[in-house]
Amino acid sequence: MLRLNNLHKIFNYGKVNENYVLKDINLLVPQGDFITIIGSNGAGKSTLLNLVAGTFFPEAGTVEINGQDVTDWPVHKRAHLIGRVFQNPLQGTAAEMTIEENLSLAVKRGQSRGLRLGLNKKRRAEFQRLLALLELGLENRLECPVKLLSGGQRQALTLLMATIGHPQLLL
After folding, report:
1. How many CA atoms lie within 13 A of 63 on its CB side?
2. How many CB atoms within 10 Å of residue 7?
3. What is the chain's mean pLDDT, rounded?
4. What is the layout of strands, in order, in the sheet containing 60-65?
5. Cα–Cα distance for residue pair 65/169, rounded to 1 Å
6. 59 exposure class (CB count in 10 Å sphere: 0-12, 13-18, 19+)
7. Where are the domains of the chain?
């Protein structure tokens, strides 16, 4: 569940170009619900998602995920709770890394990482199984750099990466 309580976001606070982007936003999204936020350019849609993700912090109000106040948590601390797919297919993946390397990073999102092997036969087989579900032929290209994928392939990979860790919330 996602709950936003009296959320406010101001850019350039106290300056001549101060911009009050979000004012007193309240939202409750129950577990399992799917919602769409629509609005014109500059309406605050991306800002709202960035506040939920922890990219920005509000001037006032709270962000709760499953009853836990995460308002002051940075992106990396919220990472185990939130999966995110960006509008731009170039975001959300590491272009120079391979498909399997990107997926390996996604599996470890929000977990402590030490120095150990990130890939093994079992994990590779699981990646192939999951990629086959996309029906894009990516299961046969695990060692292909992500920069060589089309925008649609990259976006599909990003969606898989965002959901592979079973986040509580998908943006």
Report:
1. 24
2. 22
3. 93
4. 19-29, 2-11, 60-65, 68-69
5. 8
6. middle
7. 2-78, 99-166
Q: What's 2-78's CATH class?
A: alpha beta
Q: Which helix (H) or strand (E) holds 160?
A: helix 151-163
User: Which residue, among 9, 107, 16, has the nearest Cα to 50 in the 3D structure?
Assistant: 9
137: left (phi over 0), alpha (psi -120 to 50) or beta: left
What amino acid occupies position 160?
L
Q: Enter the pTM of the model.
A: 0.86
What span, in angstroms and rounded, lies between the C-alpha atoms of 52 and 83?
A: 11
- Helical packing angle, 99-107 and 121-132, nearest 10°: 100
Can you tell me the distance from the alpha carbon of 162 to that of 103, in angstroms, rounded to the nearest whole number?
Answer: 9
Q: What is the pLDDT of residue 114?
A: 66
Phi and psi dihedrals of 153, rounded to 5?
Answer: -65, -40
Q: How confident is the model at residue 108, as a pLDDT?
A: 82
Give CA–CA dist 79/70, Å, rounded. 11
Low-confidence residues of the chain: pLDDT under 70:
110-117
Q: What angle do CA 40, 84, 99 make, to 5 degrees?
A: 125
Biggest alpha carbon distance in the chain? 58
* Residue 157 identity (one-letter amino acid): L
